[in-house]
Write a structure and sequence with these properties.
Helix content: under 10%
Mean pLDDT: 96
Distance between the termini: 40 Å
Structural class: mainly beta
Length: 118
């Protein structure tokens, strides 16, 4: 089974920074893309950032200029550096791994809570 474990969430003041990590149980080269999503109470899960195996990174409009997704293949880990945090960033952040061949599959971590509050 594919396991994804998020870490790095916590409580931060507006304008602060957090760095999230997603450790995968196998090589991230085995996935067509890795990504970060967030979900606030009463809201659906939304894409924050994605880093494909091939192609360019992409960000939600709300994250552009503030968040950076990156990877360390040797550590099977994907990161999300979050700067200039706003209260509206408060959510549970989930790591996602997508596989499309030989069959479609999506894997999710358990999530890590990010709270931005004064």
């Amino acid at each position: 089974q594919v396991q994804l474990v998020e870490s790095g969430g916590g409580l931060v003041h507006p304008g602060g920074s957090l760095s999230l990590s997603c450790a995968a149980s196998e090589s991230i080269f085995s996935f067509v893309a890795m990504g970060w999503y967030h979900q606030a109470p009463g809201k659906q899960r939304e894409l924050v950032a994605t880093i494909p195996r091939i192609g360019s990174t992409a960000y939600a409009d709300s994250a552009k200029g503030r968040f950076t997704i990156s990877r360390d293949n040797a550590k099977n880990t994907v990161y999300l550096q979050m700067n200039s945090l706003k209260p509206e960033d408060t959510a549970v952040y989930f790591c996602n791994a997508a596989r499309r061949f030989p069959s479609e599959a999506n894997y999710w971590g358990q999530g890590t809570q990010v709270t931005v509050s004064s």
